[in-house]
What we know:
Radius of gyration: 18 Å
Mean pLDDT: 96
Strand content: over 45%
Helix content: 10-25%
Largest sheet: 13 strands, mixed
Distance between the termini: 15 Å
Number of helices: 5
Order of helices and strands: EEHEEHEEEEEEHEEEEHEEEEH
Structural class: alpha+beta
Amino acid sequence: xxxxxxxxxxxxxxxxxxxxxxxxxxxxxxxxxxxxxxxxxxxxxxxxxxxxxxxxxxxxxxxxxxxxxxxxxxxxxxxxxxxxxxxxxxxxxxxxxxxxxxxxxxxxxxxxxxxxxxxxxxxxxxxxxxxxxxxxxxxxxxxxxxxxxxxxxxxxxxxxxxxxxxxxxxxxxxxxxxxxxxxxxxxxxxxxxxxxxxxxxxxxxxxxxxxxxxxxxxxxxxxxxxxxxxxxxxxxxxxxxxxxxxxxxxxxxxxxxxxxxxxxxxxxxxxxxxxx
Length: 276
């Protein structure tokens, strides 16, 4: 941070986009209002969320991914954001290419990446839970609760429902059972394409519909495999912003996909202070 402005970078993972705020001295206080202003696509930089890059608190080492949704609320984890976060750490020389751990509000995660190409992030265990439901445009969709460090509600559509998936109105938040999801929930609508391939759209809590949701793709893949009784361990997930691959092992789920750094610059000091 300088008196002239606040340094930032812009990046995305399958068009789920983020503003990164390098804060290596852990000196930057970021308010909900500032996050909302920065994420505004007309009056700000525009993004689905903000990631503050800060050293991890002892006894942990490395870096902490301090993630906020576009409405300023904290989230436990963001799979696409984690890939962009890892790409920045390597690009900035803060981590060497290869395999390394970093810290999130959802726990320690592991990234693996080279100088270029896709980034893989281990997201821990995906826990498929009880049945629930979502409501949208006067319709009820059967769903399954899935935990990926943050809460998800996965609604599987029937085969041949491509038009239905495309026509869903996600400009409004789906309804859900607040007694089950007390902290809110990300809602995925999922179309099976083959035994190892699905397509989805997602409404993220605190954001709205996004072009992709990393933990949502993991939740969707886990619910899909559980519902079909498949013994497979690899699922390709198409989202509006591209495609990712989710693999499952005894160590948990791994998400692999692109992570692109687009631009860097400084946020005007007057604009930053105005939105404290």
